[in-house]
Amino acid sequence: MDASHCGVLATTGIVGDQWSLLILRDAMLGVRRFDQYQRHLGVSRTVLADRLGKLVAAGILTREEYQEQGERPRWEYRLTRKGWGLQNVLLALREWGNRYLVSEDERLLELVQASTGEPVELALVRSSDGVRIDPRDLDHRPGPGLRP
Amino acid sequence: MDASHCGVLATTGIVGDQWSLLILRDAMLGVRRFDQYQRHLGVSRTVLADRLGKLVAAGILTREEYQEQGERPRWEYRLTRKGWGLQNVLLALREWGNRYLVSEDERLLELVQASTGEPVELALVRSSDGVRIDPRDLDHRPGPGLRP
What we know:
2 copies of one chain form a homodimer. Chain A is α+β, with helices and mostly antiparallel strands. The first copy, chain A, folds into 2 domains: 7-84, Arc Repressor Mutant, subunit A (Orthogonal Bundle); 102-146, no CATH class. Helix content of chain A is 40%, strand content 20%. Chain A has 6 helices and 5 strands; from the N terminus they run H-H-H-H-E-E-H-H-E-E-E. Chain A has helices at 7-15, 18-28, 34-41, 45-57, 81-84, 87-100; strands spanning 61-66, 74-79, 109-113, 120-126, 138-142. In chain A, strands 1-2 form a two-stranded antiparallel ribbon. In chain A, strands 3-5 form a two-stranded antiparallel sheet. The model of chain A has no long low-confidence stretch (mean pLDDT 88). At the A-B interface, helix 1, helix 2, helix 6 and strand 4 of A face helix 1, helix 2, helix 6 and strand 4 of B. Strand 4 (120-126) of chain A pairs antiparallel with strand 4 of chain B, so a sheet runs across the interface.
């Protein structure tokens, strides 16, 4: 089975490693700048630059220059529409981790529907059923691990 | 952020590599035996044994002995309930790959609701909404890439 036939093989050929998946997690939580990723992930600058470059080449992130006063220009990275398309992958990884590996009172963030405050989750539905939540209607709230 | 707090970090620490994800894909499609995985994935026996061992240690696969007449005992590997819990991860990887990387007429398999034949997909829903499809009510049918 080659990548031209199998969506799993094709996708994991691009994001099938832990650093890329963690970069995507951070990007979805609002991280933009190289140094923020580096600090947050504790990854070497070489590995980070390599993975960011691959995600840009794959059209998952876009790179834009910014410049703070008195400093040299630097890069920030944002998810494209195609990159946001990977949100379900990250949500599924998180749901499984929360179910089997992270105790409930350690969770830092909970995903809710912004307009109702109700918890949301991934489900398998008929493509013709129109029950999905508008991605713009999502919000994070602090989980038990962030509460005093 | 450490793995005791983050479901994504914890999960990708176990299945965050391409071979593990492809093993899970195959297991969900019914592959059981070491030699089947090896042939199907084209992976070295050493790497395969390493990944299978890690998935067994994590409680994602169970290992059982079987013996063909006149041959030495061998191992087969099946998904546990915990392992089947990763199905949404694989479905999300596939959906994204099918949307962005695999042309429609190359797809080998389509996931449908067995009782209706209707295509199914992942969606983000309110946890309180009861619209999800029973996992026992899923079936694959040949996609365009397998049709004559």
